[in-house]
Amino acid sequence: MALNDVLSRIDADLPAATDRLMELLRIPSISTDPAYKADCDKAADWLVADLNALGVKTEKRATPGHPMVVGHVDGDGPHLLFYGHYDVQPVDPLNLWTRDPFDPQIEDTPAGRVIRGRGASDDKGQLMTFVEACRAWKAVNGSLPCKITFFFEGEEESGSPSLVPFMTDNAEELGADIALICDTSMVARGVPSIASQLRGMLKDEFTIIGPRIDLHSGHYGGPGLNPLREIARIVASFHDEETGRVAVEGFYDGVHEVPADQLRQWQSCGFDEADYLNSVGYTQPHGEKDYSTLEQQWARPTLEINGLWGGYNGAGSKTVIPSEAHCKITCRLVGDMDPDDLRRKIRAHVEARLSPDAKVRWDNDLEGARASVMNIDRPEFEAARQALSDEWKREAVFCGMGGSIPIAGHFKSILGLDAMLIGYANEDDAIHSPNEKYDLQSFHKGIRSWARILDALTRA
Amino acid sequence: MALNDVLSRIDADLPAATDRLMELLRIPSISTDPAYKADCDKAADWLVADLNALGVKTEKRATPGHPMVVGHVDGDGPHLLFYGHYDVQPVDPLNLWTRDPFDPQIEDTPAGRVIRGRGASDDKGQLMTFVEACRAWKAVNGSLPCKITFFFEGEEESGSPSLVPFMTDNAEELGADIALICDTSMVARGVPSIASQLRGMLKDEFTIIGPRIDLHSGHYGGPGLNPLREIARIVASFHDEETGRVAVEGFYDGVHEVPADQLRQWQSCGFDEADYLNSVGYTQPHGEKDYSTLEQQWARPTLEINGLWGGYNGAGSKTVIPSEAHCKITCRLVGDMDPDDLRRKIRAHVEARLSPDAKVRWDNDLEGARASVMNIDRPEFEAARQALSDEWKREAVFCGMGGSIPIAGHFKSILGLDAMLIGYANEDDAIHSPNEKYDLQSFHKGIRSWARILDALTRA
Fold this sequence. Notes:
2 copies of one chain form a homodimer.
Chain A: H1 2-25, H2 37-53, E1 57-61, E2 68-73, E3 79-85, E4 105-109, E5 112-116, H3 124-141, E6 147-153, H4 163-169, E7 178-181, E8 193-198, E9 200-209, E10 215-216, H5 217-220, H6 227-236, H7 260-267, H8 273-278, H9 293-298, E11 302-311, E12 320-321, E13 324-333, H10 339-352, E14 359-362, E15 372-373, H11 379-392, E16 397-401, H12 406-415, E17 419-422, E18 437-439, H13 440-459
Parallel strand pairs in A: 3-6, 3-7, 7-17, 8-16
Antiparallel strand pairs in A: 1-2, 2-6, 4-5, 5-18, 8-15, 8-17, 9-13, 9-14, 10-12, 11-13
Helix pairs in contact in A: 1-3, 1-13, 3-13, 4-12, 11-13
């Protein structure tokens, strides 16, 4: 059977695959720092060469920022679009690394062998799992299993400024049946996971304005309205402390309860609530009282305060009543929540609570993003889930994700594509931090997982 | 009658007195900036020379910072201690000045003639009112009217670090019957005022600590406790929004109601509440509902938020749940409020309201200061009030002050002296700001006022 041959080939080729990944990891493609512009280009060139060697017709495509890499290979069966990114995070603080971030190596650790280096997990190691699966497939079968478009970005860690324009300009070329994204973690170590719902995002920022100028608290302390007190009261009013719910009227419009069968699956997915909370210093969950931590994180909306400031924050004391106080908020959206509608509700909530003589200025007009809920009734999802379960010998789960991954929304809104987010990273991979690593198991079983998924999708 | 001769002499000598003040104003004695150390020294020398010329045995006295100026003259009758400060505020932003801050001149303005320059009002012009009154007295009578100690500081605008040690070390030498302080404003233009009660001060600062590290609001938004939300709730709990009162249990212990006759005096003292509030952008008072603006400012305690900060405050957005949030507060104290006791109550208030998993750290252990309430039953107070009323042809008032003037408390606690705070500044003098001025009327009638007060005190 061809799949078994491919899997054997993957096992045999693992040392060489690891070497190839090391080569890519040695290129310091830090996208946010202009000093590494040539390195980003070099990483793109490396991928272009590697894909062309696989028979994928691949080109580096210029953008106002770092280039895209786009490759096409023809074939029968479904048309897949695979996405990953070749850029990496900066490495500061360098002194906390145990080795040169761009001189990767295999290390033995108590938890197993790992590939240590910047980008090992996010996202070079992950994107190469798919490329290596294709390589093994081709070695055994002489061609790739189906029509595939490869789409690699080099600006993911710097806000993807070129992504939407590029996708919009090349929408026809990037069309496919379904997208595969390899940039996520597993719910728990060894538990294969497909992220099928991502929370959306709304950002806003406001300033409460009180007196015309900063005042002396000896002169105006008492009769004077203090914007810091005002903003504290308003921020405190955002939540009902009894229930943990957001108290903005209509906030939960469009939120749906998680279906019972999905909830059961989540409850048995291996997520360790106590460990998740304890690892950052919590002894208990602090959100909505009627929902588990996992539901709160994956399926419930939030209104979070990300910044709050005003007055004097230097050493010692200053007897000031400041003229202004500021607050930055983000909301995570789920279900059918409408970001524009929600923004209006939040602003109305604040405005209704202003004291006389207090004014509010809204300082953000960024567009919000709806939640992404994948259509897991599509047969590809169940086929991929089965393939993952087979590889990891553990029931794979459709999980949610607390974060907001804009690329999935863009695939849907610009290209009309559902996306399967399948990744093999672990929570302890230290992505964005010193000593990033990728478990050798993630890399090896990740490659094998994609081989099984390709097999399942082409047979589906 | 000697007093009339002194007053005539003052009128005749006004141009020369103004020239002398100009000379002192030309010395840029900015105490907070080490670049002006020699100028502070020069201002002290100028005063030493001027007082010695008056027959006051005066010396410059070294401190770890800028020097004190201490002079003694013997005489019959009461022993007075006169305090002022020769240092001035920095002049930034310089571009907002209409002229060189240290090239003072007389200007005609719609509200009358003013002396424009840094320190004209705070405090060189004010301290020279007393020196010029003494000069005129001596010119007419051949000697000063009574035993006087002159005590000038050069660090008032930089926190008076040497003051308490110097007063403690020289307590015996600085002993007197009563202190006179000329560093305050009149309640309203043309309304002579003796500040007989000053609010005390308590400073504190706290940090709310939530998770062990900054968290991603996508991962922990929902189940995670957010210190910004926590601190907003706690800050909001400090006040009862219905009544405007501070809601800390026992906060008002030691606060006394203002006696009815004093309240009547305040109500007719010429304070224009609407103007006071409107000038900074308020249309109404915002403090305790049952008290007038003047009572709130002079006779009621406050708990004020001076700084509040945590999380991200740069451009754009950062999806962070910060590990810490911070708050600086000051309380103004009145009556018999005990700062140590109050600090315990405020800390208990915060600690009782912490959520599970939230901790508080207290970041300030500065000593508090009780309110100063002068004993206005002493005959000197009524004598001075009458003298002021005679000069300004308007009933002088015993007023409160919202601010906290530590020197008055130090005179009481270190030297056992009551202090009469009598100053001729106007609220629009722009002290600490560009284009500081002192009304020529304040200077002229201020000198005449001290002559009358000296006369009244020596006859009392």
